[in-house]
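Handout, section 4.2: multi-component inputs.
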Amino acid sequence: MFGYIGRRSLHSAVALALLIVAVFFLARLTGDPADVLLPVNADQALRDEFRALNGLDRPLLEQFLTFAGNVLQGDLGTSIRKQQPALDMVLEAYPVTLQLAVVAMSIVLVSALAVGSLAAYRPGGVLDRVVSVSSLTAASAPDFWVAITAILVFSVQLRWLPTSGYGGLEYWLLPVGVLVLRPFGMLVQVVRASMIGALASPFVRTARIKGMAERRIIYVHALRNALLPSVTVAGDQMVGMINGLVIIESIFGFPGIGKLMIDAVFARDFAVVQASILVTAVAIFLLFLVIDLVYVALDPRIRHS
Amino acid sequence: MTMSSKSAGLVFSAALCAAAPLFGAQAQDRTLVVVLSEAPVAMEACNGNNTANGRILRNNIYEPLTVISPKGGEVLPRLATSWTRLDDLTWRFKLREGVTFHDGAPFNAAAVAREIERTIHGKMNCHTAQQYFRDFKLTPAVVDDLTIDLRTDQPVPILPTYMSTLMISSPNTPMTEFPKVPLGTGPYMFDGQDAGVEVRTRKNPKWWGTHSNVEKVRYIWRGESSVRAAMVKLGEADLAPDIAVQDADDPTLDKGYIDAETTWLRIDTFIPPLNDVRVRRALNYAIDREAMRGTLLPKDSLLATQPTVPGVLGHNDEIDKSPFTYDPARAMALLAEAKAAGVPVDKEILLIGRTNIFPNATEAMEAVMAMFQAVGFNTRLRMVELGEWREYHNQPYKDGRQPVIVQTKHDNNRGDAVFSLFPKYACKGTNSSLCDKDIDAAIEAAAKLTGAERGQAMAAIFGKLYKEFVPDVYMFHMVTYGRIGKRISYEPNLLTGIEVLVETVSFK
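Output:
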């Protein structure tokens, strides 16, 4: 196991190094910070001064070498807008996004597994049809619209919950509820399809012949076999979440990485863009590692030696 | 045992006294909650004129020597009580006595001189220096604790106006970096922040002026206008200084105000066919502005004939009486006349719009393109974001370019039209697509004048531009809507776009 983790870490370090190069040069393709951060009537002399002050007038390769050297010392640069260390800004914002993502995905997993399994038990039945239609609807609903509608209904009309803000439990209900909807809709269908396949397999028939309890057949034997594709899809959804939840964070006022990154891209704040992407890449690497370990736990036939 | 009436009365009174702090606390909650459209970038005085920062910082935490009246552009005292022009190059400012910074440091001439050094001559990315103090050199000279001379290298007749942009921070503020704690002289002092969530201020008990009854302020931000509007409606916030027109649906809460912004389409007068004034007039007659009001733009938007709003010194009230009307027949006739004279009116004209320049900006440009095409123009629209837009908007322009019309917006909240005239219409103006030596000479001459004479001279330039040159397709002076909660009284004004003076907000 540790050998496997070590090898994965090495592969990921190589990938991370390549990402550092790519992020540095690709970020600069977005344009010149002087275009965005200076007053509209800034003349060429001011633009030149600004670029010189912020080291943007040096050759690109020289800038990259400086950046790479600093990265090795843990310095990911300074935000050109806020004059704060970019890494500090990112590490302040990231836990918020992670919390949202973990809470939401936990709810998605538990509920999708339960609902998908129930629906698969009688394919074509009433429950199956209701689940299919509602999960498709949930999977198709755009986050932005759902969020605004949820605020209108639960906050403005019913006054059950606050509109937005980052605080106690009541502030989390709406954003998490909105966040859960689409991945739940997608995952339910995956679980349902996998379970239908698993419930039709010979080992399930054998278990029934042997008189095993139906609940045990579904939730212990069939579900375990149906979990692998669900874990794959759930992992993919989780990657999307930890990349940043721009819409949710913007609408509900959560100070997460999504909003930070988008604002940095628009402002050409290269240091913050780079730091955000690198920290996210590390988080995704760790996530993939966890998923691989989950695969092994679910199916001992998979070996990572 | 029964309780006597007296005992019951005592118990009742005791219960009331015990409960009083609860009721008292509610009645005494004087925390104003302001929901902004974007987070502040930095608590830095020299970037306090930027909207995102200004609404928190300007004249709340930091103060300048002077301020501009929102009602007529007059320069009023703030940290300076009076000013005198000693000669063409020197102004003397008398400073307010008895003022201290939030950290206890005294406000005096040395502090002003230090701030000038820090903001204007320093090495930070200071928006104030970049925007306002590039065209002349400013050298402070301390005369005594409450007197400072400001010397320029060329005559600056409106230096007091310029000084309204320079906010003064404590001499204990670092010279070369943004402070973590902003220390000004203002009526409210910084009281902490939760990164990405809110900024808090509280009343400065030592402020020199008259406070309102607001004790504390919480600044929060939500990018989505409908959320801001809902928050005020529900009492989660007291004030949203700007919400989109479609969310301003409650006349008991919403107030529209002219926000000093003007939008127009800037014509590239150097390139055919746009170098022909008949074509430029035709462009103006092609637009049905009334149809756009109340649909794509707020119904209270004013038709514009120049880039400054009424009330700014130099604004021409006469030409406001005759804005371009919608007259497609006249537009087509002008085009035909130009074509007959050999002007290449069939050449494709590129329309450049800027995404998010104002709500419904894209839709407005689509409507404009359709209207141009309806009278016979060959136009193509590209919506671009800020970085690319600047390439079309700012000099130097590309050689060999095609004819371009650029959607633009400008706010002159300094109260003087010179801040609009030079950059937009002078040959060397960064955003100018016009070059006429008579206009240049007129701008230069007007800039040397003061008072009413100055205003008349600048108004005359706007008149000449409007009637003879037509360098723009004039559109609208913009209206913004603010939502004001039931707990407070507040009147938004021309400057609410860049500042929300808490001293003018009060709990009912």
